Input
Amino acid sequence: MSGQNRYDVVVLGAGPAGSSAAEYASKGGVKVALVERKEKTGYPVRCGEAMGIKGINNIGFDVDPGWIMNRIKKACLISPNGTHITYTKMADSYVVNREIMDADLVKRAVNAGTDYFPNSPVLSVKQIEKQLYECRCPDKTFTAPCIIIADGVESRLARDLGWNTVCELEDIDCCAFCRIDCDIEQDTCYFIIGSQITPAGYLWIFPREKGQINIGLGLLGSHSSPGKAKTLLLDYINKHYPHASISNLHCGGDPAGQYLLPLVKNGAMVVGDAARQVASLTGGGINYALFAGKTAGTVAAEAFQNNTFNMSHLNKYESIWKKGYGKQQLRSYALKSILLKEVNDKFLNGIASSLVKKPSSKLSLLNIFFKVFLHKPGALLKTYLLFR
Ligand SMILES: Cc1cc2nc3c(=O)[nH]c(=O)nc-3n(C[C@H](O)[C@H](O)[C@H](O)COP(=O)(O)OP(=O)(O)OC[C@H]3O[C@@H](n4cnc5c(N)ncnc54)[C@H](O)[C@@H]3O)c2cc1C
Output
């Protein structure tokens, strides 16, 4: 075993959560290592690559123009009988190139002073003293009083430290995703629902660049079986785009349940997919990962003031998360649970036929939900209480 590397903060995993944590910890003046198992972070891409612009602006994160492949202005919901409902409120999004973005986020961390270690799978993490963790890779070992776990949806490392990271089947979206060559309106994304497409989930289409779309499908683990998401996606593509050439076909899980608690324990923090910080209803997690990473990194650096490490200061990350995106995530989880109980194809078609008469500028996701529950007073009350 060669190389003992002593740091203030070691970040495990260089996705958006880990890289932003490393960048902001380094900006706070502490000594940071960012350890990544792959040679090339962000590759292969297992993501629809869509990011809400309002969300990213709220985080105060600079989006590099070089990441942006397309800008979406409209979202179109397609009901089980094919009715199109288009809305513009809350639809403004970028479609980014995750390969470029993830690599740039690592560069930002390195420019801020982080030492970056690609090709370094972390095999184990353990607490070796009250204020010291040891992270072992095949050819090196890192030690630090503070670690940030950012190893994504398959997170194994938080489990090493006693976190229960098991996702219930109804809290994980089983996804299949690919790119296909085809021309659709560049400024519109599509969400297609109905039991013919997929049970307990939806199919999405994000136009990426002229002539290419990201297309994917996710369904709850409780309604899935091995290979089902991929079969349903390919069935849809064969039916609607029979001549399209398919590339970058991948499957993966999206932890669309509730976030892990606690988020902080004895000098260790968990961020991003590893902490199940994902918008439960849509499965979007990039903005959440950036916010969690930025907050955890900033708080970690603050904990090292005056040459001492104040472990209890790390709890600030959990309280900032809870007040910010945490609240939004729990609300979206509760809404998803109500929808899953109440909604079926016939019901959705009825709603779609009444919504289609409204101008798109007057529709927002919130109006749509209230319309959905209008004739179900119990569900309407629960929805109202969520947004009060
Ligand atoms: C099919 C699909 C489509 C999606 N589409 C969207 C979308 O359109 N918009 C959106 O906002 N979100 C989307 N998401 C979710 C989004 O991709 C994630 O929420 C986001 O990538 C989370 O970032 P992260 O940094 O937490 O994890 P990741 O991006 O998964 O990064 C984790 C990193 O940790 C590394 N790692 C893992 N184990 C180790 C180890 N032992 N040692 C060292 N390194 C390790 C990995 O190699 C990886 O680089 C989608 C997810 C799926 C599955």
Notes: The chain has three domains: 4-46+98-166+258-327, 50-94+169-254, 336-387. The chain has ten helices and 20 strands.
